[in-house]
Amino acid sequence: MSIRFGMIGAGGIAQYHVKALTRIQNVRIASVFDINPEQASKVANETGATIATSAEQLLDNKEIDAVLICSPQFARGQLEEIAASRNLHLLVEKPLGLSMEDVIRKGRAIRESGVINSIGYCLRYLDTVQMAKQYLQGKQVHLVQVHRYGTRHSAKWWNQLAMSGGFLVDAVTHQVDLVRYLVSEFNDVYANFGRHVIQQESPDSTIYDGGALSFTLLNGAVGTLTESCVSPYYNGSEIKIFGPDYYLSLSANGMQITIIDENQNVTKTSKMNAYYEQDKRFVEAVVSGTSQHVLCNYEDASKTLAVTLAANQSFIERKSMSLV
């Protein structure tokens, strides 16, 4: 069975998917749309896809089986709902949006349609992350420490809080998702953000330089998260998980795991391509008609978005935000 993809959004993240999908047998990118004609042309030249003149035209294409949505979170509109209503399976990049009301409505429509859906929390598919998940089964966690530091995106929209949600919502969402996936759902979150460096460099920008969050989890653990998008000399991430009889760390965006306990002190580095593993599982799900091997669907991903949006709101209201 051949799976024909339509692609909405052909920018940087989409390029990772193009490379992954073209490696998968019996997959073809059949149509592509991007508001930037040059980006759409690049994908079309690489894959032989036709170029749609609009997202609506692409979704009207009877020759596609699934849609890959890589358009920015502020520009999604009703794309997911329209695709689901036309029985098009959905592979959607994170974050899902900037409004929980909209995302909950879309999640309901997708669930009711019955289409296969997978969201771009690709780190879940790494062998290191699966190793961590297996190790942590049944183990007590009392403390989680998370950080991610890097630099900001050059796109003008990304530097507007109302369009990107900031570094936390757009990028650090991967680390938040892994806390949910590996440890526990969030109970509450309290956040502080600073806006000093970016304000001086780019007065029109509204995103934060960095943030410091404290949180509690439903399993009783407590944790902290720090992040910065103005860190040109150090770029990295780590999730440290502490138990009374072990220590576990996932660093380099989940690519390296360290486990230390009474019986072992081991470090392993993954050689997997997370995008390829994620996209392959999605294709297999579409072919088989069952999503049991998809590790993150739309409704699951909406819970990760809820944590990051609650953190932003916490800073505005200057209080802890409950997630239950």
Automatic annotation (TrEMBL):
Note the superkingdom of the native organism.
Bacteria
Q: Where is the GFO/IDH/MocA-like oxidoreductase domain positioned along the sequence?
A: 141-243
Molecular function (Gene Ontology), one example: nucleotide binding
Tell me the InterPro entries matching this sequence. Answer: Gfo/Idh/MocA-like_OxRdtase_N (IPR000683), Gfo/Idh/MocA_Oxidoreductase (IPR052515), GFO_IDH_MocA-like_dom (IPR055170), NAD(P)-bd_dom_sf (IPR036291)
Q: What residues does the Gfo/Idh/MocA-like oxidoreductase N-terminal domain cover?
A: 3-121
Protein name, please? Answer: Inositol 2-dehydrogenase
Species annotation: Paenibacillus nasutitermitis
